Structures
1.
Amino acid sequence: METARNDKYYTYADYCAWDDGERWEVIDGVAYAMSPGASFEHQSVSMELAWQLRSFLHGKPCRVFTAPFDVRLSVNEGDGTVVQPDILVVCDHTKFDPSGKGVIGAPDLVIEILSPSTQRHDRLIKFKAYQHAGVREYWIVDTESKMVAASVLSNGKYVTHTYFEDETVPVQVLDGCIINLGDAFAGLSGYSE
């Protein structure tokens, strides 16, 4: 994932002014160009994970959203971070932007699905940004290895556990929610290019 624009510190206001047909994220004032489209694997896993979360949350106060959906993490620090996680869960409705354009503050759960161009960005830059912002649980999903690195915030630092395709993952921030990775990755086994 490449940085672009220039060396200026960007804010959410700058982000909202860009109308160039491209997707961007801003982390700590640095603009990052996002991939133009998602692969079959990415879409398949994203839809299944979002469906499992939505099924569990039906009738409950928490809400699940999928990209593109703006998440402003650092409003109190110059409003220089806006990301678009692949999947997010928000339980505190006061975090919904009154303008209807996303969330202001840390979601309870963020899920990012790796692609070749985003691996470093998701594993390092976003990991640090989510940890710093207080995202209570952050999953990195690797469709190639069919595994999930689930990180839970503990005393301001993430503690990570790895789960594989034949396992279930307890969502720590959603009491009683269990995600079946076999179902999440099932759509990949029959795919051929």
Note: The chain has a mean pLDDT of 90.
2.
Amino acid sequence: MKFAPVAWHLRWCLVERAKVKPIVVLGLLTLMASGCVSSLQFQTRQSRPFDFSRDTFSFSNQTVYAYDHDPATGRLVVRHKDPPPDYTRHCFVVCRSAAQFFQYARFVPALPLADDATYGRLVRQVVSRSLSSWPMDSERIVIPGYPSLREFSRANERLLKAECGSALHSYVQRGHWRSMFWFSREQQAGMAKQLKDACGLNRPAIVHIVCYPRRSFIHHAILVYAVVEAEGTIRFTAYDPNNVEEPIVLTFDCRRRTFSLPPTDKFQGGNIAIYQIYHSWCY
């Protein structure tokens, strides 16, 4: 995404070239280590887990470019798609909206279908809600005529693409500032525990993926919703908004304290850094 080089330049200016006073850098680092934490310890377990077949959109976020792997060199070859896709750079929007529907909507297929104006109003109500709090079941917004988000989005794709948010929401997400700074292994171990706790409470967590500190940025968002622990690893199941066919697996190596992803059509696979977003006032 286009904000990636900007983030790298800001980080380079702040930390490597010391263009600002040390007290400013210290203040930013203190902010990172303080108030922006999860409040899961004060939350209760939700009644059901996130279900990939029900709680995801029927359409995907599309990449601007096609990514091919050169078998001879292993390098990633990037080229423009032809024809260009019509729904791109919405990975943060799709993840956020899926989480909001899971959190705030209740689908009632027994009720009669509504018109586009009504559905548009209901969608706007859902996606205007904060992900940092959870409603009572009685406070959920009723979506009539459909059994799930997957079916609702299949029948109302254009409406949902228009109402859930523009690509600008991906560029200006409030947590992007964190991608400018170092990700320690201790911080990543803490993130693994935070995600494990969230999954244990049936509370999907949106994470921002970066390939820090490499220049080959992958700025992307996925929605983590299930966890399985094995010997030496923690495997998180996640919804990748670029893939509507099946979930992906995010793996945490407990010994090395690093996250990794398998190869995708956009990413060669390997180690990444992550942090949770949309869960506090500064993320």
Note: DSSP finds nine helices and ten strands in the chain.
3.
Amino acid sequence: MPTRVIIADDSYLLREGLAQLLALDPGVEVVASCEDHDGTLAAVAAERPDVVLTDIRMPPTNTDEGIRLARTLRETDPEVGVVVLSQYSDPQHALLLLEQGSAGRAYLLKDRIHDRQEVAAAIAAVADGGSMIDPRIVDLLVAARDRDEPSALDVLTTREREILSEIAEGKSNAAIAESLVLTKRAVEKHINSIFLKLDLSQSEDTSKRVKATLLYLAGRRE
């Protein structure tokens, strides 16, 4: 079954462009096209999509509708993934998107949308409950950090930092094991050690991964 997608953007041309781009992918079916926040919520109720691909700014206020849409769907339709598209490279927008959890959420800069594989990868990730953050947003978070301050990540081993990097990309334990050529059990042991060292062991499971991701993004140093 193809992944059912709703496109939400106040620009008709952009919506049509995305629809034509995604039409080339047999694994994706665009089921609705919306131009504002309220219309998108109505379309979700009517179409029951797997993923919403939304602009960060839409009517009625043209401020942060995409982020608010993602928050609302987290409560009303938690199984629906959301990919937020933005022309703004402010990392705070990405962090706001992840505040209630990274599962099923992706943040891409709009100049990525000419690359069908990039957009399709984000759609597939959130449809599967994973997450994705535009690499340039990560770079900005890293560059903004005062490199003279000690990092919370300094307590981690090299392998644990590698695994935390994979977590920050939204990968599952199985995907991390495959990527790093480890057993799933070994990955689970490393992740438990990471959570313990970062003082996250008392948090809920989803919250652990989100908080660990934010610590990684804020504290990674070249």
Note: The two ends are 42 Å apart (CA to CA).
4.
Amino acid sequence: MTVKTEGGPWIVPTRRAVWIPARTPHEIRMSSLVSMRTLHLKPRLRHRMPPHCQVVNVSPLMSELILHACKTPALGNREPQHIHLVGMILDQLKAAECVPLQLPEPVDPRSRRVATALMDKPSDQRGLEQLCERAGAHKRTIERLFQSETQMTFGKWRQQLRLLHALRLLAEGAKITQVALEAGYSTPSAFIAMFRKTLGTTPGRYFRNTPQSASRKTKKGSCTKGNPGSGGGHAREGTRQ
């Protein structure tokens, strides 16, 4: 899944979840067949959660807790079993490891022109000086804008763009060679080395399938939009089929 917010896109691969605070306008797009579960938290619980979006790893225990919660008609604060279940889910969410799968977008018109050119074609091999010529700005200005607006150097931002683009292609079933070329890498081995360095494993292991429940609802290539609400936030957990 790709979750688009005002701050930029978040990529949510298989067996990961995204935490979305309340009143955060967002749009969700599916890159492949996806089974998704959504948990909505009441406002009184949000103080235990981060104030900004996060993509986190979903442990086997958290996955089972989410599935169990979704099978329960309504969780109330008068049922001891429900109280324990909610508490365990919140503890798992707080302890979940964050995954660096966001791409902050610059806001200055000059840096946005550079960013847009690369987002339209992540495999673009032009250097920053060449990109700056069309953006109407000096190289040092663009480097300074990227650092201040995205909290990343331009080189790190470009690598993150290529990684997220590669994740979308992998989710759609593309082969490693094709993914490497479209993400701007000269060889599959160079792409795999970057992937391992960033996410700690190979693409094949990262996207390894897990047993799926036959009762899960499947969505393909869909788009849903979330509007600001009065709730405390919600977590979406997706599993690729």
Note: The chain has a mean pLDDT of 82.
